[in-house]
Amino acid sequence: MIILKNNQLVQREEAIIDMEDRGFQFGDGVYEVIRIYEGKFFLMNEHLERLQYSLTETGIEFDIKKGKLAEQLEDLAEKNQIDDGAIYIQITRGIAPRSHPYPTEAIPTLMAYPIPISRPIKLQESGAKVILEEDVRWLRCDIKSLNLLGNVMAKQTAKEAEAFEAILYRNPEHVTEGSSTNVFIVKDGKVITHPANNFILNGITRRYIHHLSNQLGITFEEDVFSVDELLNADEVFLASTTSEVMPVTQIDDYTIGNGEPGSISRKLLDEFFKHVDTDQIRV
Ligand code: PMP
What we know:
alpha+beta, D-amino Acid Aminotransferase, Chain A, domain 1, D-amino Acid Aminotransferase, Chain A, domain 2, nine-stranded mixed beta sheet, six-stranded antiparallel beta sheet, about 30% helix, globular, pyridoxal phosphate binding, EC 2.6.1.21, BCAT-like_N, pyridoxal phosphate
């Protein structure tokens, strides 16, 4: 496997991380996962803009526009012959003697490499089972930070329950998102999802679904909903770069709708692929 480390393409064996890299010691870094369909990056600009947002919010001095990251990622995908998959990119604050405050001299470490991914078609057809978990994460979930322990622990609980995802809630009145997905409910024909604020990651797929809803004439609302509203929704679905649109048919012991993927979720999933090969989409 060929890896992009800082500005160089190297073999995996050469992509060594220093023990005092702040990403390793503090989770002091940010990341992105960008999907590739049929050899083409999907919504690359949006991912790079969000990466810049995460860098700016964490005070990591790295200007994506200054470099040639987009071209380097294209090159990386080509060298690894990725047709259907994804590229993972992380940028940490860099290497410095271990001490909490931001070091003044550290140079950010960038690492990018391909991760194997395939479409979760079977589960999209049957609908997924998920569980509910309390959201115990920090209050800057808008930053795509390497600190994922809260997300990792929630996903592990889901795995142990043989569920696809854990849907998180701050309190019974406030459902936020999944451990690695955004959450949507459909009620009376309207798609509703959590507002893009500090409680959630503003998913690129979430934004794409907003765009698709507009195209299809489906009302898209950003509003907080409760656990009760979630369980009594006509449809529930999740969205992320890797799960695309994932209908949810069961939450803990509750069946959603008639236990089959709902019609609006299916419509959005069908529409998803009418546009993935269009270079012009901006969401
Ligand atoms: N929320 C969280 C917590 C996530 O980790 C992800 C996946 N990156 C998402 C939402 C979905 O974001 P995206 O559509 O950009 O993959």
